[in-house]
Design a protein that fits this description.
Helices cover 51% and strands 10% of the residues. Helix 2 links the parallel strand 2 and strand 3. Helix 6 packs parallel to helix 8.
């Protein structure tokens, strides 16, 4: 038995951003974005069409943490007229922050209590503020998921905020908004999308619908990321990558991620490795570990990489190498002892437990470690 559910309305295509004002439909709204001229111009453009926002939060930083989110929630709590909808314009960090704000009207202390008690605290509002998400990168997939990543950098911990009502009502995916994305961000976010797709395949929660989305997404990234890097202004290639990222989001919105993502979190926390790189450099080894563990996964991987999956692993490694991404932990400045400790923790964690291969196989492929 299996089930698939995703309630997000997706508005895709060049010029889709112009639909946001109509989706706000006269409601009081807040905007969430980055402190940069490009995002300021998008926010002004929206306000000109929809009327002034009751709150503009424009200081979101990468990997939103307790300190930054605490200040943002305090501003929200002090707003005289609470927003009836929140519009996020940006990448994964902006979308994560917007989801926190959607349940942060009582202040961040309520969100923190919820996270630190594993959801047992009843401190959050009964209903989240509706969300309209405008991704400006092709990678996060969060525009169609119901969770957000929250970091406690002081304690070196990562949390996941997850609620059914954090599914956005609408995702506006406009490739034209991604044309100015720098090369390194194009690579990192594109690899994040690839990881989302593959991680939803070698996953105990995979189902036929998520698998079809994942296959299309992975093929899209492998086919179009290279040509896009050769011509960053190619709107057609931007569109292909944006579609692949959203399809990957539709896949892992139902499965969550698996081992590669579980390994990525300490890499980002302790070494500052960008998320898309941190969750993708292990993909060849994780794929090799997964081969043979599940016939349906093997078949899906063949549809992406061809009949010879061993060659597929080598081709995936070559793809990453061609982007300048080392596929071993030492190449990212991570020592062996630290790495093997992470591997044990990753396999024990929630995302690691989603992975289909047995622990012994993972140790065999990764070449040793505590196991």
């Amino acid at each position: 038995m299996w089930r698939y559910h995703n309630p997000v309305r997706i508005h895709f295509g060049t010029g889709a951003f112009d639909q946001v004002a109509g989706l706000i439909a006269g409601r009081r709204y807040a905007t969430v974005s980055y402190d940069a001229p490009y995002f300021e111009s998008l926010t002004r453009r929206l306000c000109a069409a929809a009327g002034p926002a009751v709150l503009r939060i424009d200081n979101i930083t990468p990997n939103p943490d307790f300190t930054m989110l605490g200040a943002a929630c305090a501003r929200l709590a002090e707003t005289r007229e609470a927003p009836e909808v929140i519009v996020a314009i940006g990448g994964g960090s902006v979308i994560d922050a917007a989801k926190v704000l959607a349940v942060g009207g009582k202040g961040f202390h309520a969100v923190r209590a919820h996270l630190e008690t594993g959801g047992r605290s009843r401190s959050l509002p009964g209903r989240a503020v509706p969300l309209i998400i405008v991704p400006t990168t092709a990678g996060t997939g969060s525009e169609v998921t119901s969770w957000a990543t929250v970091w406690d950098t002081e304690a070196a911990k990562k949390y996941s905020l997850a609620r059914e009502d954090l599914y956005p009502t609408d995702a506006i995916v406009d490739p034209a908004l991604m044309l100015s994305l720098p090369r390194d961000h194009t690579i990192s976010t594109g690899l994040d999308a690839l990881s989302h797709a593959l991680e939803s395949l070698w996953n105990v929660n995979a189902n036929p619908v998520s698998t079809n989305f994942a296959i299309s997404a992975a093929r899209g990234v492998l086919r179009h990321l290279g040509p896009l890097l050769a011509d960053a202004a190619d709107i057609t290639q931007r569109g292909h990558m944006a579609q692949a990222a959203t399809l990957a989001g539709l896949a892992f919105s139902n499965t969550k991620t698996a081992l590669a993502h579980s390994l990525s979190y300490p890499a980002t926390l302790h070494h500052g490795i960008p998320h898309g790189i941190a969750c993708s450099f292990t993909l060849p080894a994780v794929m090799q570990s997964a081969i043979g563990a599940n016939p349906a996964c093997d078949e899906a991987l063949r549809q992406i990489f061809g009949d010879d999956l061993a060659t597929g692993v080598r081709n995936l490694s070559a793809f990453l190498d061609g982007l300048g991404i080392a596929t071993d932990h030492n190449g990212h400045g991570i020592g062996d002892r630290e790495w093997w400790g992470w591997l044990d923790e990753a396999l024990d964690g929630e995302r690691g437990q989603n992975f289909i291969a047995p622990r012994e196989r993972v140790y065999e492929i990764f070449g040793g470690g505590a196991g």
